Amino acid sequence: MEERQLSTPQDIAEAGHEIYQNKYMAEYEDKHSGQFVAIDVRTGKAYVAPHPEEALGNAKTANPDGLFHLVKIGSPGAFRVSYTSNAVNSWLS
């Protein structure tokens, strides 16, 4: 694997996305849809599990010094974040 600059979260995300697309996406979306994969962007190794914490835990156990990119297999992102400015925020009180 070629050495690339991994100095920002954006660099890590781009490297992980590229590795996923080129090496794992076709197989994993067929066999592991809905699960999570943590990709070590330094080694290119992938760790699949049903839950994000488990995928990252397995990856960190295998390589405590790794840099990981998390993907929800078959989804555009690992997590969905939403916000609305007109919501009632009574739960904040």
How would you describe this structure to a colleague?
The protein has two helices and three strands; from the N terminus they run αββαβ. It is of the alpha+beta class and 93 residues long. 37% of the residues lie in helices and 15% in strands. The chain has one domain (9-80). The protein has helices at residues 9-31, 52-62, and strands at 36-40, 46-49, 68-72.
Distance separating the two termini: 51 Å
Q: How many domains is the backbone divided into? A: 1
Order of secondary-structure elements: HEEHE
Number of helical segments? 2
* Beta-strand share of residues: 15-25%
- Tell me the strand order in the biggest sheet: 2-1-3
Mean pLDDT: 83
Low-confidence stretches: 80-86, 89-93
Which secondary structure elements does this structure contain, and how are they paired or packed?
Elements: H1 9-31, E1 36-40, E2 46-49, H2 52-62, E3 68-72
Antiparallel strand pairs: 1-2, 1-3
